[in-house]
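pasting for ref
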Amino acid sequence: MISTFAQHELKAFWRSKNTGKTIAIRIVMAILVLYLLLNILVVAFYMDKILDKVLPDEDLIPAFCGIILYYYLFDLLMRLQLQELPTLRVQPYLTLPIKRNTLVGYLSFTAILSVFNLWPLILFTPFTFKIIAHENGAGVATVFMLGIIGLTIFNNYLALYIKRKSNLNGWVFLVAAAVLILAGIGDFSWHLYSISKASGFLFGHLIAQPVWVLLPLLLGGVMYYFNFLYLKDNLYLEELGSRKASAYKSSTEIPLLGYFGHIGDLAANEIKLILRNKRPRSSLVVSLLFMFYGIIFYANPHYQNMPGIKLLPALLMTGIFIISYGQYMFSWQASHFDGILVSKVDFKDFLRAKYLLFSLVSTIVFILTIPYVYYGWHILLVQFAMFLWNLGINATIVLFFANRNYKRIDLSKGASFNWEGVGATQLLLSFPLMIGPYLIYWPFSLLGHADIAFIALGIIGLLFIATRSYWVKLLEKDFMTKRYTIAEGFRNK
């Protein structure tokens, strides 16, 4: 039956009207993957020399064991962002005399066929059989690689389980990403524990007592079983739909946005769109990751006497969501844009909802980045000035350019290596967003009044926020002259 499923998928691929485009994309992707694998292979063969230089005071095998869990934490984070879910058009098979276990088994089996599962094998195998086998024998090296395979299977199915759960509740994805990030911070910044010591303990015991290999193999098997059960329970569309309906409340029941009436409802629907779809959700994840961008600049003594350089991290941390999500503002609704044009929704309310969404996310990020005041109260002034600048000016610029983006985005597609909707508009947009603050800052800075420059940036942003109704009217007027061109562009698949 598995061969039958594979034949059906091949026929569906070759009979698709987009076969040529898909083949071209896959060829490019295959070249990129091959290049990455070759780089990993080079690192793998020189792993012993790299470890000897990086950790000269430690023995090779304990040093190697100490980095393995770091790899798998990073691997899980990358899988959550880039690994695609294996799919099969199961609807036609549900009415046929085919066992549900067979369908689910096929989906579970194809999940193993991921390039992510090759990386640890290529990275760890040369060191294992060159160093560990030499010191402890080929049998121990083989058992060690079985442990690597077990953790790889565990990571593979854990990532898929989280991604499938997040399709029903987008907060699952954000919580999982936050846990991984906090795990790294707890080790490197707060020093609450040592992942390296835990990794060394686990794999050191695996070498000394090979029976420990049962632990990673058991973890992999348990995660496969959970993933299998979840797919089996949600195989029927009506079951999945009923759970999805119960997992989400209506937009009017979101307490914070309920105070904004109809505009709050539109913003709530936008938030649901972000949490339920991979590519817009990646914009939210990027904005959370960029909160750590300030460490590069604020904690570096070299930049302490360069106040102008601090504009960049402050701009990106408080405004990266506006930039990354806002530049495709109407493209996210491309599939139902015609419905928006004929609906009773006032486009002014539509724009105000966008502003509300920007304000909500940027305010949360600004509050979360307040602890950077640890590096000086001056940081708070820069952060607040760019926070106002982003909400006042950059949000308006982004919506202005959104009226000139006619490329649709298919929300059903993944976020990894997806350049759909990207065009010259996005390149042009980066210039006013990045250069604008410096055009205000530099004249004051040359006169030796950097603090006044930051205050001026904040005041200008505040003036734009105060006059937002005026800018909404201009944006609406601009949209009305381009709405049919935008709609026509969104219809081109």
